[in-house]
Amino acid sequence: MGFFLILEAEYIKGCPLDAPNFKECAIQNGNEALLQLVKGDASYKIPSFLPFRLPFVAVNFNGLTMNLTNASFSGTENLKLQDFTFDPVKKTTSMAFTGSMISYQFNYKAKGRIVAFPIEGQGYGSIKLYNATYLYSHNFEVKTKNKKHYMVIVKNNITLEPETVQVSFDGLFNGNKLLGDNLNKFLNENWREIMAEFRPIISDMNGLIANHMVKRIYEKIPLEEIYPGIAFDDKSR
Q1: Does residue 38 or residue 6 have the better pLDDT?
Q2: DSSP reduced 3-state for 34
């Protein structure tokens, strides 16, 4: 996720910005680096993504209140970088990934409505996204430190489009199996409508995870090392 051109680790290789095969180089090196970075890297304060853990997530959206605890996000090791662009003039970066399966597992407590269907309960839940495409982009500014230039993210966006989604919630409606099974069936049969309603929350959560990794790297690695050959006109800044 923008982290694949760092030069301080043996598994990271750079790609000169003016290279004719820059995109192909970046994609290849990105996928090689991703296999290592998902394991975590203490030198960049990047935790393991096998899985990535979130102690607490609060959701309050469109009539639904849901608290998630002991949440985990797994499947990052399945991601493959498919496309990459970097525009130093417009100061934008964009990446496209595909993933065979991404899984969210958590303990939950919920009350409210999902697509006009009532939901209430607490217990264990999971959401699995199969064959999804993830588009991650950010706008950045450049700051100068010790005559080197560093990227600072000022705005980011992430969207995802899965081929299918599988949802499961235990403990619904005080353990009423009939109501719980019916709701789970409804959620799985209508996952596109669910995704349409809750895509902003899911995208924001994925964006936070992506930025957690990207920011750590951009803070430490100057652009001159990320993109060899890049030039700056500091007099105009």
Answers
A1: 38
A2: helix
